[in-house]
Amino acid sequence: MPSKQAQSPVVGALFMCGDGALALHCRLTASHLVTADIRSHGVYGRGNDGLRPVPCADRAVNTYLRDGILPTTDLTCPPSEAIR
Question: How far is Cα 52 from Cα 54, in angstroms, rounded to an integer?
């Protein structure tokens, strides 16, 4: 899952098809993109690696993995959700 990393195509084209994760998201028409306002690549499971977790992203992915339920729309986790 991409983040708003400075080098990521998400920054300049959050809702446009571009390269990488955005291009894949556009091609997978039933997909939902989960992003977070953090300066890092990848938003899921960060706490497992000793990094700042993003609980909003973890909940969305865990729900999908456990129950097969996607978020109803693309999801942008608020900055307050990224534990500092």
Answer: 7
